[in-house]
Amino acid sequence: MSFVSIAYTALFYAAAIVFLVGVGARIYRYARTPAPLKIPTTPAPTTTGGVVLRMFREVVFFQSLFRSNKWIWLFGWIFHFSLLLVLLRHIRYFQDQIWLWVSLIQPFGKYAAFGMVIGLLGLWARRVLVDRVRYISAPSDHLMLALLLGIGLSGMMMTFVSHTDIVSVKAFFLGMIRFSPQELPTDPALLIHLFLVALLLIVFPISKLLHAPGVFFSPTRNQVDNPREKRHLAPWAAELEK
Amino acid sequence: MADFDVPKFREIPIIPKLEEGTMEHSKPYVAKADFQQPLGYPGELVDNWKEVAIDKMGELLGKYRSFQVFLDACVKCGACTDKCHYYLGTTDPKNMPVGRQDLLRKVYRRYFTFAGKYFPKLVGAEDLSEEVLDDWYSYFHQCSQCRRCSVFCPYGIDTAEISMAAREIMDAVGKGQKYCNEIIGKVFKVGNNLGLPQPALENTLEGIEEDVEDDTGVKVRYPLDEKGAEVLLVTPSADFFAEPHVDGLIGYGKVFHEAGISWTLSSHASEAANFGMFIGSYENMRRVSMRIREAALDLGVKRIIFGECGHAWRVAYSFLNTLAGPFDFLDPNYPVPQHICEFTHDLIKQGKLNLDKSRNDDMSLTYHDSCNVSRASRMGDTPGGQFSIPRDIIRASCNNFYDMSADTIYDSTYCCGGGGGLLTDDLMELRVKGALPRMEALKKVVDEHGVTHMAAICAICKSQFAKVMPYYGFTLDQIVSVHQLVSNALILTGQKSDDDDDDASDED
């Protein structure tokens, strides 16, 4: 095996472990930390079913953001929805027999890359042009956009400009899953693309990308509005009553 | 009139350009040892305050999921940046919700996250320093914990939670706020925020009884500490004497009278407000709440009803069962606690109140949704009852009612500018500037519909507006209590009808 193949195999195993363990630990922490008081932002649903629906509207349509700012909503939603299509399209590189629906979304997933890039550029433009957003931006906020944009553009290079040996790429990842490492083609677009993806996986658990699991644990969005009907008591608060 | 510039009404409410540091000088008085110690806090800034602050932050991260998740989840999208009334009124970027949160988040990142420990510059992490503590003291006392930002945040990040945590950390290192901590001390000592002892309350209530009898010819009772009453009414202590609050209290009494339900106030729990929430202290909030439980048990009541008070209703509706429950000794047929508006609304629906709307024809009303009632509580059985029930009551009591612009009411309502422990004279500039968005919305209905008065159901809103409205060209008596309107319109059983009545109804 070439040095590059060995290096990338090691990088992706490491990145996968950091991602899974890091995000898992974070989710465990969120789940374990009690919410001692009922603080849903009201009006809030009075049933669990209602909360599921509220969360669905937040996660799928970005409802609160839509109420808040149409430009951020537009670019943010285009980016996230495109990213979803792109990710789903990439399932094909991890399976021998490609599921029918993965084949069906292939053309949409390909062009969704443009949506990703447009969304990211829009968000970045706001970060630079709007004085309030510029004020709250740290270097990492710009770098995160650069990273995602790099992933999108390098991917598009391979899809639309100079194709890579996709059969070998697929063999590489199937090999990783089966713990029998394979050779990776070495064209620059692919190597850049994969390197940035590994970087994204590594920074995920230590960055603001934690908003993805975090939203599900937000007490203002996931609590049922029933404090009068049902007494809510955290374990540490119960201690005070002894 | 003021030693600062009162903001001008904006022609079109565009988002103002930010100006750094415009409110850096705004700081409330620091609590002296006498006010710190009764609450269990050090009397002055402790020597190892940095260590204590970081330890406290760590403790809170493990106790409050909201605090942990909110510090992690923000992506700096900017959605909240134009949502805070204090930002709109002061243009100070540290008054943008995310700007305020970041004052604490940068320290969290520095001490609690991998990225902040090893790459502080990259992620905007910063050491805790005296400057940072100064900023905390200044800007976490420029948040009224109104939750408007949390409505618009895609992750529901609530700056109120961050402000509460920050204030708790500052209390823990010995840098508490005088206004809040002194008041909580008074509740522990006397029973209410204003420090009104039992005899003073008794005296006031007797005076009210006489006034109402003079006015209506009917003997309406305003009982205190009466054992065996059906209902314990817990109301903000401002209701006992301040205008227009007391007119609301008069209204509650008349409504109880007409309902034929015995009720009582308690001198032990003579305060609905719970400033323990403002300083983020579960323990102090619990201690204040327990007085209500004690009073209910002692007086043997069957129901607890709260008077018009915003943050109080949040603590009552959302937290009381948690803090001082379970209330299995009360009548299970009624929610615990109930809001006076829920009570009055039920009576109106049952047709038990004889309301003559024309008695309020000298006024044209709008309604200010109080922040914590709107975004942190509910009334009635269905979500949104906190908006419809008070409006139903106003419409049943008045002929002329107009809502303000849609983006300034319901859960988009603006805070009055004085909530969350900021209703103190040492923060007057902040209070005036923070009221700007609400004053603009009010101006609009005044100009377009000839609105003369604004009704509210919160003691802080009422006091704040009475104080700041004159800065904006209104008069202090243009803010009224909702139950004042009920009181005006309500014709008591056996009440002598006065001659003005007939004239007024002719104008309909």
Write the layout of secondary structure elements.
The complex is a heterodimer of chains A (242) and B (508).
Chain A: H1 3-32, H2 48-61, H3 63-68, H4 70-89, H5 100-104, H6 106-129, H7 131-135, H8 139-161, H9 166-177, H10 188-203, H11 211-214, H12 219-222, H13 235-240
Helix pairs in contact in A: 1-10, 4-6, 6-8, 8-10
Chain B: H1 33-36, H2 49-63, H3 65-73, H4 85-90, H5 97-112, H6 114-118, H7 120-123, H8 130-139, H9 148-152, H10 159-173, H11 178-189, H12 198-216, E1 231-234, H13 245-259, E2 263-264, H14 282-299, E3 303-306, H15 310-324, E4 338-339, H16 340-349, E5 365-367, H17 371-376, H18 385-397, H19 428-434, H20 436-449, E6 453-456, H21 459-468, E7 479-481, H22 482-489, H23 500-506
Parallel strand pairs in B: 1-2, 1-3, 3-4, 5-6, 6-7
Helix pairs in contact in B: 2-3, 2-10, 5-10, 13-22, 14-15, 16-18, 18-22
What proportion strand of chain A?
under 5%
Oligomer: heterodimer
Shape of chain B: globular
Question: Main sheet of chain A?
Answer: none
Write a compact overview of the structure shown.
The complex is a heterodimer of chains A (about 240) and B (about 500). By secondary structure, chain A is mainly alpha-helical.
Structure description:
Chain A has a single domain, classed as Fumarate Reductase Cytochrome B subunit (Up-down Bundle), CATH 1.20.950.20. Chain A is 70% helix and 0% strand. Chain A has 13 helices and no strands. Chain A has helices spanning 3-32, 48-61, 63-68, 70-89, 100-104, 106-129, 131-135, 139-161, 166-177, 188-203, 211-214, 219-222, 235-240. Chain A is globular. The termini of chain A are far apart. With 508 residues, chain B is mostly helical. Chain B has two domains: 33-176, Orthogonal Bundle (Fumarate Reductase Iron-sulfur Protein, Chain B, domain 2); 186-402 and 451-506, no CATH class. Chain B has a four-stranded parallel beta sheet with strand order 2-1-3-4. In chain B, strands 5-6-7 form a three-stranded parallel beta sheet. Chain B is globular and about 75 Å long. The two termini of chain B are 41 Å apart. The model of chain B is unreliable at 499-508 (pLDDT under 50). Classes of the chains: A mainly alpha (242), B mainly alpha (508).
